[in-house]
């Protein structure tokens, strides 16, 4: 088996290269390709199959049923593509199969994990002493940071969650905006903080928390802010809110799954001004940075806060290493996510990362201008990589909702590009999200034409 591995890897690489070269595949798989997935055996095979045949089946049945989120005309959710250097690094790294839990398990994984974590802190303009750790995604990063914030607030009041748990602990209250991402509520639930402990603050029509409406904040408060609303790309007013909250003893966390990357562009940094003043941040490498799935990042201004909540002891896992990923996050065994992220940053450098952010923002503006010129309604000014569009009437009325849903369905059936739907402040809308850096002006023009064709049909 071991002897046949090199041929198999070459075969897999050749198939991957063919997949990349097939530019005429639809953005979303055909009904036939999806139906053909039934040809994967439903039962556990009773015996072995030649690995080459396994790979062939995967490519034959699997490749046609993929969503081409890496091919320039995919505007769904906030699903980034993959940078060429990172896609190639992933092939090598998956062959290495390194576990980055402890440095002794893989010196190279540990080295690149630490290096890319530090580079991310640097690129995002966060405090140089901040500690970053990779995890499965921004949802897990939010959870990790919320656990660290909860434990830090309680530790300041002399309560040790590790020793005494939460029963009888001083209550923690949460303040956040009405537009906070749903993953934050999932994280709060997992952290033992229910919705009744959460006070939500109203937002403006772009999804930004209204600073004037903040309730009293004290030293039991977790204030959770957002860099990059998932529908509009707008961010909370960090500079206005964070200093006073921290002075009152609150822990301030920022969910910046994609929007935090605005800080890596000198021209877009202004949209997240003051974000560096927080205690913790969550972001993703697999969205706007275009690292492969899955790669989230949790960052704490003081790494000791992360360790308080995440570090564990076991004789067989003892380490003298300064940095061991298993003590910085929820996972022990984990993929060496830092390797692919290192490849993206090493390949692009600081200027290339800024260019990638600016390019996608520019394409979003180009799309918004084309759609507005064609009679569509843009529901929020485009500041980053999200375009929110409504058809029919701009106002909250059932006819506009129905027309918008009709256009979204028609666009998805047309197949030129793919965009999803949402409800924005009581109105149905189409989300056109720019996360894949391979999107070209030609992609935008062809996609805008297709969307308008569907709208005017
Ligand atoms: C603002 C925000 N926070 C959190 C998440 C969750 O990220 P993930 O899917 O990586 O867990 C998203 C996903 O789109 C998001 O936009």
Structure summary, number of beta strands = 11
Order of helix and strand elements from N to C terminus = HHHHHEHHEHEEHEEEHHEEHEEH
Average predicted confidence as pLDDT: 97
The CATH topology label of the domain at 91-344 is: Aspartate Aminotransferase, domain 2
- Gap from first CA to last CA: 57 Å
Broad CATH class of the domain at 91-344: Alpha Beta
Low-confidence stretches: none
How are the SSEs ordered, and which strands pair?
Elements: H1 5-21, H2 31-35, H3 51-62, H4 84-96, H5 107-123, E1 131-135, H6 138-156, H7 161-164, E2 173-177, H8 182-190, E3 198-201, E4 221-226, H9 238-247, E5 251-255, E6 280-284, E7 296-300, H10 303-310, H11 337-373, E8 377-378, E9 386-390, H12 398-414, E10 420-424, E11 427-433, H13 441-456
Parallel strand pairs: 2-3, 2-4, 4-5, 5-6
Antiparallel strand pairs: 1-7, 6-7, 8-9, 9-11, 10-11
Helix pairs in contact: 1-3, 4-11, 5-11, 6-8, 6-10, 11-13, 12-13
The structure holds pyridoxal-5'-phosphate.
């Amino acid at each position: 088996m071991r002897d046949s591995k090199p041929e198999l890897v070459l075969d897999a690489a050749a198939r991957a290269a063919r997949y990349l070269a097939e530019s005429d595949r639809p953005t979303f798989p055909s009904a036939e390709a999806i139906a053909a997935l039934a040809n994967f055996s439903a039962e556990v095979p009773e015996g072995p199959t030649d690995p080459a045949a396994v790979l062939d089946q995967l490519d034959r049945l699997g490749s046609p049923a993929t969503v081409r989120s890496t091919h320039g005309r995919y505007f769904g959710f906030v699903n980034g593509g993959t940078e060429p250097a990172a896609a190639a690094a992933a092939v090598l790294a998956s062959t290495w199969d390194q576990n980055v839990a402890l440095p002794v398990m893989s010196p190279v994984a540990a080295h690149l994990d630490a290096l890319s974590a530090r580079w991310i802190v640097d690129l995002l303009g966060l405090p140089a002493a901040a500690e970053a750790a990779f995890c499965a995604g921004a949802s897990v990063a939010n959870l990790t940071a919320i656990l660290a914030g909860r434990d830090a607030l309680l530790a300041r009041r002399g309560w040790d969650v590790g020793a005494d748990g939460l029963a009888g602990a001083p209550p923690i209250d949460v303040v956040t905006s009405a537009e906070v991402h749903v993953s934050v509520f999932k994280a709060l639930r997992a952290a033992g903080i229910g919705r009744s402990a959460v006070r939500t603050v109203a937002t403006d029509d772009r999804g930004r928390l209204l600073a004037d409406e903040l309730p009293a904040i004290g030293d039991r408060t977790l204030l959770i802010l957002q860099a990059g609303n998932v529908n509009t790309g707008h961010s909370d007013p960090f500079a206005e809110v964070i200093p006073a909250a921290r002075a009152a003893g609150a822990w301030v966390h920022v969910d910046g799954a994609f929007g935090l990357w605005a800080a890596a562009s000198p021209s877009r940094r202004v949209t997240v001004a003051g974000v560096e003043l927080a205690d913790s941040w969550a972001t993703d490498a697999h969205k706007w940075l275009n690292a492969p799935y899955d790669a989230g990042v949790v960052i704490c201004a003081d790494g000791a806060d992360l360790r308080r909540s995440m570090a564990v002891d076991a004789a067989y896992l003892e380490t003298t290493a300064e940095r061991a990923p298993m003590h910085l996050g929820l996972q022990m065994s984990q993929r060496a996510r830092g390797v692919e992220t290192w490849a993206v940053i090493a390949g692009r450098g600081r200027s290339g990362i800024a260019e990638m952010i600016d390019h996608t923002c520019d394409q979003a503006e180009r799309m918004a201008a084309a759609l507005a010129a064609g009679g569509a309604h843009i529901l929020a000014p485009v500041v980053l990589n999200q375009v929110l569009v409504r058809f029919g009437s701009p106002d909250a009325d059932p006819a506009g909702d129905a027309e918008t849903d009709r256009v979204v369905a028609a666009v998805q059936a047309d197949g030129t590009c793919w965009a999803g739907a949402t409800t924005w402040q009581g109105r149905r809308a189409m989300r056109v999200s720019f996360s894949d850096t391979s999107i070209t002006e030609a992609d935008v023009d062809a996609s805008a034409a297709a969307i308008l064709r569907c709208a005017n049909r």
